[in-house]
Structure formats: structure tokens, C-alpha cells
């Protein structure tokens, strides 16, 4: 039985450059994303609870919230707040990691 020739593996990496995976690992991007997501969700849940559960009492002025009602609209706003906060915290932590890595070199 004749063996098949080995196929060259296809990679997205550019020859002569360090692998991109190494950079993300060195900057701790996955850890920073987890911390950012946790911070974003925590802030959004806190803001949603204070607004919808009226922990500081009822808010002045009333409005009509079509289709979703106030809880639905504030849930959408909480999602936006969580996403933006997660991205901001992840970016800041990654920049701090890059700065520390540059200081070591």
C-alpha cells in the first residue's frame, strides 16, 4: 500500500513574524476580556436595579415607554452600558499590560 504525501498545513500567520496568538497571550487579552465583562455586567445590573426597583425612591417625572415598557427599555440600556463598559475596561487593561510588557523590554 502506498502512503499519501503529507499536505502542508495552511496557516493565517505571516512567515517571519511572531504568531499573533503569542501577542494576545502576552497581553493577557482573554483575562482582560473576562474582567471587563464582569465589570460591565456588574455595573449594568446595579444601574438596572437602582432604576427599575426604585431603590432611591420613585423618580420625578413620568413618561410612557411604548412596546417594551420601562423595564424593557432599561434592560436594553443596561445591555448597552454593559457592552460599552466591558469594552472600555478590556481596552484599558490591555493597554496597561502592553505598557508593562514594554517596560520589561
TrEMBL record:
Which keywords does the record carry? Membrane, Transmembrane, Transmembrane helix
The answer to whether the entry has keyword Transmembrane is yes
Report which superkingdom the organism of origin falls in: Archaea
Transmembrane ranges? Answer: 35-53, 73-102
Q: What is this protein called?
A: Uncharacterized protein
Q: What is the lineage of its organism?
A: Archaea, Methanobacteriati, Methanobacteriota, Stenosarchaea group, Halobacteria
Amino acid at each position: 500500500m502506498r502512503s499519501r504525501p503529507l499536505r502542508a498545513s495552511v496557516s493565517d500567520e505571516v512567515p517571519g513574524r511572531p504568531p499573533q496568538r503569542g501577542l494576545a497571550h502576552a497581553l493577557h487579552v482573554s483575562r482582560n476580556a473576562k474582567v471587563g465583562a464582569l465589570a460591565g455586567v456588574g455595573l449594568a445590573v446595579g444601574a438596572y436595579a437602582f432604576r427599575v426597583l426604585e431603590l432611591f425612591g420613585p423618580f420625578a417625572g413620568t413618561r410612557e415607554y411604548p412596546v417594551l415598557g420601562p423595564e424593557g427599555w432599561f434592560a436594553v440600556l443596561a445591555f448597552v452600558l454593559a457592552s460599552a463598559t466591558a469594552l472600555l475596561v478590556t481596552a484599558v487593561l490591555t493597554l496597561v499590560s502592553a505598557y508593562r510588557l514594554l517596560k520589561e523590554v
